[in-house]
Amino acid sequence: MNKGVAITGMGIISSIGNTVEENYNSLVQSKNGISKISKIKTRHKDVIKVGEISFSNDELIRQLNLPESNNYSRTALLGVIAAKQAITNATINEGFDCRTGLISATSVGGMDKTEQYFYEYLTDKKNRKYIEGHHAGDSTQKIAAQLGITDFVTTISTACSSSANAIMLGARLIKAGKLDRVVVGGSDCLSKFTINGFKSLMILSDTDCAPFDENRKGLNLGEAAAFLVLESDKIVKNNNKKVLAYVSGYGNSNDAFHQTASSENGDGATLAMQKALKISGLKPEQIDYINAHGTATSNNDLSESKAIRRVFADNIPDISSTKAFTGHTLAAAAAIEAVYAILAIQHNIIFPNLNFKTAIEETGIVPVTTIKEKEITHVLSNSFGFGGNCSTLIFSK
Length: 397
Prior knowledge:
32% helix; Peroxisomal Thiolase, Chain A, domain 1
């Protein structure tokens, strides 16, 4: 087995909690964060359900002590909070004494603000400041500035696999000796653009989503941010750091099938899982738990189920999707689920797949539906995005 790259810190804010501890408590209590829309003015507010974070933008700004003149999007605000938590958790208190990078993922970027003031830009100069914060890299730059990271800063946007690829790139940079420490993860907020976009695809549910259920109706969108601190063996040893888990495997591929749909037989997902297993040096039977992408859409759950069957045959590990807790948080999803994978390893517990009743007829996969305690050494986490972007991570004790 490949020991992998050490994870020494993690931070998260989501609809089920504002810290790692709060998220864990909600997971073990089967308490989801899905509700009607309350913070966005949209005609769909009573038609669909989402995973909203309770804090308003003003409350987040006060938490960060930002000046009134700031042009932070909600994506940036959430990202800074989660990244700072991760740095604190990694006991990095006196700046960076080694080559440190930041790789942040986003899909929404700053569009929550640019869409809010779009019709006012020509007549209201004071809100034009948000135009500069629209692009995906802006939230990354703001997180880097808040953390003081300058050695290496970049943004990844590969739809819903974005933060999986951020984690993967960070691990590869450390293994290649390019950096000693990398803060990796992602952040996305809810916006009218994404709500309308997913609504137009007819894949949003008006009820709490039910991943892997034969009668699933679609996904719930969510907002969240999560970051991990990855460090080299040398830094861990020299600083006597506590290791939370290891990134032991990773793989990505592309379906090259459709702009928004997964291939019917899960070709890209199959390749991503196979690559991650190969890099980790693990055999399929050594995986103790699969944190599935599990969006609760007709296409994804069937495609992912077929891919899992292709990789694991009839020996499928315990599996669940945690998206029924948080909603699908787009570019942040893989980072959110990385935190949950690490919590599963730390506590030897599998989190339930909420709202499941009936197995998909074609594959017969039955996820874990109640809290399950078992020894967990290796967790495989899937993240699949539009454009056929398929990524798999393996986390190990």
